[in-house]
Amino acid sequence: MEIINPHDKFFKETFSIKKNVIDFLQGTFPPEILKKLDLSTLTQDNNSYIDEELKEHFSDIVYTCFCKDKELRITLLFEHKSYAVACPYLQLMKYLLKIWEANSKQSQRLMPVIPVILYHGKDAWKVRRFRDYFEGIDEVFFRFIPEFEYLLTDLSCYSNEEIKDRAFRRVSLQITMLLMRNIYNDKILGDKLKAFFEIGKQYFEEGEGLKFLESVIRYLYYASDIEEERVIDTLKEISEEGGRLSMTIAARLIEKGKMAGRAEGKVEGKVEGRVEGRIEGLKEAIEIGLELKYGVEGLRLLERISKIVVIEKLEAIKEAVKISKNMEEIEKLL
C-alpha cells in the first residue's frame, strides 16, 4: 500500500505552478537577491536529480532563471519540511552535488544553487552555520569545512494576517500557506476555515481555481482532524460548485478505500502521512549521527536501516548511535 505524505503532495502541487513560485519569491526573498533575478525567465527544471538514496528526503522542485545583469543562470531548489531537521546541510549538499554533476556531464558551467526550505512543523527550527555542527574544532580548520547558506521560510514566523494581507498576492498561495501554517491546530483551523475559503470565493469559480480547490480538499481530508462534513458545509456556504466538488472527492476516496469514515480511510491517509514523516525524521537523525560519529564507514549501515519501518526500533537505534563506542553495538539492533 502506498504511503501518502499529504503535506509533501500539497506542497508539490502548489509549487509546480510558476506563478505561485514567483509570488513566493517576491514575498520572501531578500531584496538584494530578488533584484538580481530575472523572474520572467523562471522555468521549472523537470530533470529529476533524485536517486534511490535521496528520493525519501527531497521534493524535487527545482527552477532555474537568469540574472538581470549578466548571462548567468541560477538554480532555485525548493524543499518542504513538516518537521524540524537536525542538520539540513547534509541532505542539501547531496542534492547540490547531483545538480552540479548534471552540469558537468552536459558540459555546462556550474550553476549557483539557492536552497530554499519551507517549514511548517511544530518544533522550533534552529538555523545554524554548517561549521557549528563540528564541535570543539579550532578556527584554523574552518577553511576545510564547506560553507553555504539556505533561505528559510518558517510559517510560524508569520501571522495569518501577514500571509493574507502582506506577504503573498496570489489567492492560491495565500490559502496554501494559511492551511500549512495552521494544519496542526484543528481548533484554529476549524474556526478560520470559512475565512480561508472566502479568500478564494471568486477563484474557485474558474477552471484553475477548481483544480486548486481539489488539492485543498484532499489536503484537509488527509492531513487534518477537521470533519469531512464540516469541510463540505463550509464550502457550500462559499461556493455551490465547491460544495459539490468536496462531496464528490469524499465519495471517490471512500470508494477507493482511502476514506471510509473517521476510523478507516481518513486515519489511513492522515496517520500514515504523519508516521512517514516521523520515520523519515528518525532515519535522517540516525544518518547524521552515524556520519558525524563514524564518518563514511558509518554509512554502510544505512541500507539496512532504510528498510526498517518500526518507529520504536528506529528510536532505539538513534539512541544507540549517541552512546555507542563502536559500530558493532549498533549492528546488534539491526
Automatic annotation (TrEMBL):
Membrane-spanning intervals of the chain:
none
Name the Pfam families for this protein: Transposase_31
Location of the Transposase (putative) YhgA-like domain: 5-189
One MF term in GO for this entry? double-stranded DNA endonuclease activity
Q: Name one GO biological process term.
A: DNA recombination
NCBIfam families for this protein: T_den_put_tspse
Family listed: Belongs to the Rpn/YhgA-like nuclease family.
User: What name does this protein carry?
Assistant: Transposase (putative) YhgA-like domain-containing protein
What is the source species?
Kuenenia stuttgartiensis
| Classification lineage | Bacteria, Pseudomonadati, Planctomycetota, Candidatus Brocadiia, Candidatus Brocadiales
